[in-house]
Amino acid sequence: MAVKVCFIGGARYSDPLDATSEKKFRALKTLGELFVIGFSHDLRLRRFTEHAHFYLLPQLSPPVLRYLELFITGEILIIWLIVRHGIQVVITQSPYEGFIAASAIRLARCFGYQVGLVVEVHGDFERSLFLQREIPFSAFYRIVMDHVAHYSIKQADLLRAISNSTKEQLEKWAPEKTIVQFPAWTDIETFLQNGIQIKRNVRDVILYAGVLIPLKGVHHLIKAFVLIAADFPTAELVIIGRDENKAYAAGLREQVKEIGLEGRVQFVRPMSQSELAIWMAEACVLVLPSTSEGLGRVLIEAMAAGTPVVGSRVGGIPEIVEDGARGFLIPPGDENALADKLRWLLHNPDKAREMGEHARAFAERLCSTENYLKAYKQIFEVARPRNGQREHATSTL
Prior knowledge:
Helix 3 (about 95-110) crosses helix 5 and helix 11 packs across helix 14 (about 350-365). The protein starts with a strand and ends in a 14-residue tail after the last helix. The protein has helices at about 20-30, 65-85, 95-110, 130, 140-155, 165-175, 190-200, 220-230, 245-260, 275-280, 295-305, 315-320, 335-345, 350-365, 370-385, and strands at about 5-10, 30-40, 45-50, 55, 90, 115-120, 160, 180, 205-210, 235-240, 265-270, 285-290, 310, 325-330. It is an alpha/beta fold and about 400 residues long. It folds into 2 domains: about 5-185 and about 370-385, Rossmann fold (3-Layer(aba) Sandwich); about 190-365, 3-Layer(aba) Sandwich (Rossmann fold), CATH 3.40.50.2000. It is globular. The protein is built from 15 helices and 14 strands. Strand 12 (about 285-290), helix 11 and strand 13 form a beta-alpha-beta unit.
């Protein structure tokens, strides 16, 4: 009998699914019947089936309302899915959604339902929220979040990390728990194909792709670009991403206006993975100047497109960026060091192209649908209850 699994988290989905999500769930459905609790892109409540059964909550604003919405409705939905559809495993995107799932599962067990809980960590769950935006009463929030995380991690049957840094964080919280480690889903084929087709037409474009929030350090990138702009008059800075923190995003645009480089710095709307792959393949470098990062999937995507990368020496970034081989590492917030690396890449296009080739080969080895499915198959088998017993998991795949 196929395992029935519910994923719950803050991810947003469209109906129909975008190409990347469609590939992901088309692959995962070969392992069992899937149910997904997340958010829609608008204020509509949505329910549809496309490789998985999706239950999407309205995208309320500000973010605190979304968290409250998920806490209130998520537990009810999980209990209903357990009773109505026989869910056997619940997988949460972070320890905070884990609290919702753990509470629902604990209640369901009182009525004889056996359900496994897997808590995943995709970033620094202790600090990242406070690096994204100003949080009123932050000391109170930290206390609450600490207790919530402790509870869900304690209740989990299995933990999953996406990098060595997130695994180390989990080991501090739960040294006795089994932790399975493998990277997040990456639509690697799209970036590989565009890299092969387009890479000969590289422009002097320095690229950032990601949400616009303080912890991503985009303001440092703009300042570094100012330091090299006069030396490279054809160079452009392209910033692709959603205004997740509207005040910060407005500040970035004002920063560009004040330095008089509006004609050389573009802010581009979020786009599909296939469109992003073209931008990456045409760029001479992708920069991720974060102050905190679980792994940095956007770096893997750029590498797959054959583009060298520059990233901060934080979190999981050093695990994928071999300094001087696939790109460069810099101290977080060091604008002079970032400018030096950008200057070198623009001065040495042939060597930069060699870096990109090394990066592409690494990304192809790291991310494959086969390895991703193998890892999740192990998680499903280990977390799925069988007469009160669970199988042993291999910690790293």
